[in-house]
Design brief:
Structural class: alpha/beta
Radius of gyration: 18 Å
Shape: globular
Number of helices: 11
Number of strands: 10
Bound molecules: D-glutamic acid
CATH architecture of the largest domain: 3-Layer(aba) Sandwich
CATH topology of the largest domain: Rossmann fold
CATH class of the largest domain: Alpha Beta
Order of helices and strands: EHEHEHEHEHHEHHEHEHEHE
Helix content: 40-55%
């Protein structure tokens, strides 16, 4: 094992940074490439075929080029659609991100769980299976809150978050039958933990949020246990399209230890 071989975290945008923060806590010495398909953002409004094609194609190119020791698809939309396909074609350990329905079912007291994800995620049979397996005796109310993806991207560019976007996401759950009893909300999109403070203010103190980031970091630590880590060069962020937003994101990326930005050639 080459000690400088990186972990590659992949998302459509900045959402996977919520996973990176947990990975840093478990594996502070691990070299990381944070890859964002900003050229394909948002994934949540795309078809299954489009998401699968982008994710398989890009991860194939990135893995050829950067030889990661492990790839983490730090995106619920991409994972719930394409995890199996990516595992079939790449000879690298792949860790995915799935909606944290199991821990939410363990925590809820009211028995009513809210789930916020992208439109593409909440319609996946994968989510039906998780609900049936782990929350069969609970109510799981789903809402497609794709607007939050843009709000999280804006926040990390240093722009204000539109309170109306947050209010619509909360109302999308609260206004459903039984929604008033929600005490646990699954943030089933990696962008959403970046807005936890804003969502918490509107949901109120009776609601707890659950996401998969810590579980993913623990899984990565387990799969790389005993491997040597040496940061031969600075960690960096890799984007698929050059545009003006990259310079605006640079301070937030630096905050996550990503000192440079590259664009995939
Ligand atoms: N961050 C991604 C997720 O976890 C999706 C954002 C998008 O729509 O591109 O689902």
């Amino acid at each position: 094992m080459d000690a400088s071989a990186p972990l590659l975290l992949f998302d459509s945008g900045v959402g996977g940074l919520s996973v990176l923060a947990e990975v840093r806590a478990f594996l502070p010495d691990a070299p990381v490439i944070y890859a964002a398909d900003n050229g394909g953002l948002p994934y949540g409004t795309k078809s299954e075929a489009e998401v699968a094609a982008r994710v398989c194609g890009l991860l194939g190119r990135m893995s050829e080029r950067y030889k990661p020791r492990l790839i983490c698809i730090a995106c619920n939309t991409a994972s719930t659609i394409a995890l199996g396909m990516v595992r079939d074609v790449l000879n690298v350990p792949i860790v995915g991100t799935v909606p944290a329905i199991k821990p939410a079912a363990e925590q809820t007291r009211s028995g009513v769980i809210g789930l916020l994800g992208t439109a593409a995620t909440i319609r996946q049979p994968y989510v039906d299976r998780l609900s049936a397996e782990f929350a069969a005796d609970k109510a799981v109310l789903r809402f497609a809150a794709g607007e939050l993806v843009g709000a999280a991207e804006a926040k990390l560019r240093g722009e204000p978050v539109d309170p109306a976007v947050i209010a619509r996401a909360v109302a999308g759950l609260r206004d459903q039958p039984g929604g008033a009893d929600i005490d646990t909300v699954v943030l089933a999109c990696t962008h959403f933990p970046l807005l936890e403070k804003e969502l918490g203010t509107v949901f109120g103190p009776g609601v707890r949020f659950v996401d998969g980031a810590k579980g993913i970091a623990r899984r990565i630590a387990h799969l790389t246990k005993g491997q040597p880590f040496e940061r031969a060069r600075e960690d960096f962020a890799l984007f698929t399209r050059q545009d003006d937003s990259l310079a605006k994101l640079a301070p937030a990326l630096a905050h996550y230890g990503l000192a440079r930005v590259e664009v995939l050639q």
